């Protein structure tokens, strides 16, 4: 067993989509978008990472900062993944520079919280479209790159970012989001069962509460209550989610296919008399 290279992702080509908040009053879910962590963990491990989100400025800033830190590289390719034509443009841009793709992290997502009686049809449509339908669209478009040099003994990896809210009725009125994430977990299993023979593995990660810039205010107000419902007694850290991504992208995770890995400190198992 080559322990030295078990978690090695050096020189792998990675695409990470990243979290446009989209329409109007769209809000982040309880675990909040921590997309920079995915970028950073791969670049720090020596991979070549393409990042994409709707904001060109945000993409460029992250790419420049992470490339400067190295040792890997980060390249920005902005795209609005709500639009199917933008999905295909993104893949075409990457194909100009790469002959294959080792890892695809489907992290772009959106949320909307509103009372049941006034929940807009357009909001439901857009949340489902970005969080579920476009994951399928982008994965489908990337398959030629994902299968270009992979095989069953050296598979490429698709990682779909779900949520613990895909397993439970969330405290917020985020009806479209919870439906999309539950669907995403099952879509991952379906693709794993049907497409593994092509040399691609499919898994999802379901995060719980994580410390992040966007969750600072929530933690200030409700931090003690949130922690009290996490059996290990703390909020997630960048290392927790980054390590899971590296595992699923490396030799260590090559026999994990169709799994949904919950990283929530056990909060989904919380039980108190």
UniProtKB/TrEMBL annotation:
Superkingdom of this protein's organism: Eukaryota
GO molecular function (one): oxidoreductase activity
Keywords: NADP, Oxidoreductase
SUPFAM superfamilies: NAD(P)-binding Rossmann-fold domains (SSF51735)
Signal peptide: none
InterPro entries: NAD(P)-bd_dom_sf, Sc_DH/Rdtase_CS, SDR_fam, Sec_Metab_Biosynth_SDR
Family membership noted in the UniProt record: Belongs to the short-chain dehydrogenases/reductases (SDR) family.
Protein name: Uncharacterized protein
UniProt organism field: Circinella minor
